[in-house]
Amino acid sequence: PVSWGRVLGGGVAPPFLAAFGAHSPAAATVRSESAAGPAAAAVSLETVLALAARTAGGAVDADAPLMEAGLDSLGAVELRNQLQQALGEGAPALPSTLVFDHPTARQLAAFLEAQHAPAAPAPPLVTAAGALLSAEVVLAGTSALLPQGADGVASVWRVSAGGHDLVGEVPAARWEPPSAADAGGETVARRARHGAFVHGAEWFDHRCFGVSAAEAGAMDPQQRLLLERGYEALHAAGLRRAELLGSATGVFLGIAANDFAEVLKASPAGRSVYAATGSSHSVAAGRLSYVLGLQGPCVSFDTACSTTLVAGHAAWRAVQLCECERALLASVNLMLTPAVGLSFAVAGMTSAAGRCHTFDARADGYVRGEACGAAVLQPALGAVAESVMLRGSAVRQDGRSASLTAPNGSAQRALLQAALAEAGVGAAGVARLEAHGTGTALGDPIEAGSVHAALLQARGEAQAPLAVGSVKANAGHAEPAAAMAGLLVLAAGLARGLAAPNAQLRRLNLRVGEALHGGAACALPTGLAAMGRGEAGGLVGGVSSFGYSGTIAH
After folding, report:
1. Strands 545-546, 541-543: pairing kind
2. Which residues contact 280 (CB under 8 A, 6 or more apart)?
3. Rama region for 296: left / alpha / beta (φ>0; ψ in -120 to 50; rest)
4. Crossing angle, helix 153-161 and helix 482-496, to 10 degrees?
5. Residue 488's closest CA among 333, 222, 327, 309?
6. From first to last of its 554 residues, what are the pLDDT tens digits of the chain?
7. How far apart are the C-alpha atoms of 59 and 56, rounded to whole Å?
8. Count of beta carbons in the 10 Å neighbourhood of residue 181
9. Are the beta carbons of 248 and 311 closer than 8 angstroms?
10. How far apart are CA 8 and CA 10, in angstroms?
């Protein structure tokens, strides 16, 4: 007989070696339960924890994955065998993949308890699609982070309502702006000199999400922000971790930038075992589901600038069709290296003045920006009366436009009409439009023309004007996350009955004025303006986002 306590320094021997030494108290307790026969077959969480701790050779947290606590593949099989023994004779056979199907002690205990509960017929998840597509979906909880410390949806609204400018030169902590010689000309260098950068992107409370310091060091800061802002939105919707765990909550993520992959290559963390997942876009969505235990659909989207709304369209449909209980819509954009911005500068896409001069005569391109935001979409049942409801959505493509990246006015017009038809709202009933509004000499007039054709022509002279604006004039163009900022500003404005001003509008772009035909039914406010209410007393607004890939959404 072996004295395992002495050999292992106070540890407990694995069960398959127990025959060579004295039995531990934990083993005796388990045997007494299993020996009691089928009447005592229920296995408690305490028993699961005791068995797991003995097999793993150390303390086990009820909600941490057992594999992270030191349980290897052999130990997983052994734990399954011990649980089978604890269930007693006559119990159904446990699968060999038990620990992989139910990775925490609490999940194991819940599964084992369900094994002995009377079976109940599962309700049908999906009924007729026609009836479900009319289901009402609301924004139940939101979170946001914009540049220059604009943290929270209330702060984002204040930035937009006050016409604040969040754009500046590239911070020294990011990179040194390229010289004219390095950039290939003074104009290109000026285009790459400005941006809208968030504060504190490098900070992360890894312990809050059960992430080790080593893994956090190899994680794209975009993944870190998504964890923080995603959980904040779920929390704002009144949800807690206990009810999220194992729920059919979906994750629909907008993400495009992959700068961190380059950062990782030049860092010692690039040789970490965690480098493989640190900058993966699919993992960025999967990590949210993994950390919070969400089991609904989980997808990462990239359609360039329209990414958030395309992901939101999919999330909205998934909730309507009961593919998930609720959906977390999230998006993020960080600029960690100068390479992408320099390529856009060379292509002439960004502004030499360093601003999105939306609808202004100075429009010469956009300025890149950063943002992270999230919103919870869920059925309207049980939502508060003031909730913002999603009425309609549409996704289209420019198709064969003038060039690969050129906008297509007729496609934009069809997109707006499709979204209105889906919502069951007449053009005359729309009070506010959060435009794509990048501030480009070509894009702004084309968008104005599509707005006139799809929305303004149907409005009567006696109606309050359609208020049009874009938060890009305040916070820059956050590319895949841009429409998240627009969506949240629109929702905040609708809740207050106010339209935010166009922050950079000083002198109207003549081509925009021509496209709008000088109609009195449209307003481009330069100060905070009240919206006109429809006949039912409610306020309806829309948000547009057009990707340079050609995929457009409203």
Report:
1. unpaired
2. none
3. beta
4. 80
5. 309
6. 677 777 776 666 777 776 666 544 444 344 434 444 444 467 889 999 999 998 888 888 888 888 888 888 888 889 989 998 888 887 888 887 788 778 888 988 888 888 766 655 555 544 445 556 778 999 999 999 999 999 999 999 999 999 999 999 999 999 998 888 888 899 999 999 999 999 999 899 999 999 999 999 999 999 999 999 999 999 999 999 999 999 999 999 999 999 999 999 988 888 999 999 999 999 999 999 999 999 999 999 999 999 999 999 999 999 999 999 999 999 999 999 999 999 999 999 999 999 999 999 999 999 999 999 999 999 988 666 567 999 999 999 999 888 888 899 999 999 999 999 999 999 989 999 999 999 998 899 999 999 999 999 888 666 789 999 999 999 999 999 999 999 999 999 999 999 999 999 999 999 999 988 755 689 999 999 998 765 556 899 999 999 999 999 99
7. 8
8. 9
9. no
10. 6
Task: Name which of 45, 41, 69, 40 is nearest 57 in CA terms.
Answer: 69
What does the angle CA 314 – CA 229 – CA 375 come to, to the nearest 5 degrees? 35
Q: Distance between CA 356 and CA 367 in Å, rounded?
A: 6
Residue 453 near residue 521 (C-beta atoms within 8 A): no
3-state SS record for 44-69? CHHHHHHHHHHHHCCCCCCCCCHHHH
If 0-12 CB within 10 Å is exposed, 13-18 middle and 19+ buried, where does residue 513 land? middle
Residues 6+ apart with CB under 8 A from 57: 8, 11, 12, 14, 70
Taking a C-beta distance cutoff of 8 angstroms, is the pair 336, 174 a contact?
yes
What's the longest Cα–Cα distance across the chain?
A: 97
Element (H, E) at 372: strand 371-379
* Cβ proximity of 51 and 86 under 8 Å: yes
Q: Which of 304, 297, 305, 303 is nearest to 329 (CA)?
A: 297
Q: Are strands 529-530 and 326-333 parallel, antiparallel or unpaired?
A: unpaired
Q: Cα–Cα distance between 425 and 394 in angstroms, integer?
A: 13
Q: Which residues contact 475 (CB under 8 A, 6 or more apart)?
A: 146, 147, 150, 159, 166, 167, 196, 369, 371, 485
Active site residues: 305, 436, 477
Distance CA 252, CA 550 (A): 20
Q: What is the DSSP letter of 453?
A: I
∠ Cα 105 106 112 (to 5°): 90
Q: What single letter denotes the amino acid at residue 27?
A: A
Going from the C-alpha of 353 to that of each of 36, 167, 178, 436, the distances in angstroms are 80, 11, 16, 19
> What is this structure's pTM?
0.84
Residue 465, classified by CB atoms within 10 Å of its CB into exposed (0-12), middle (13-18) or buried (19+), is buried
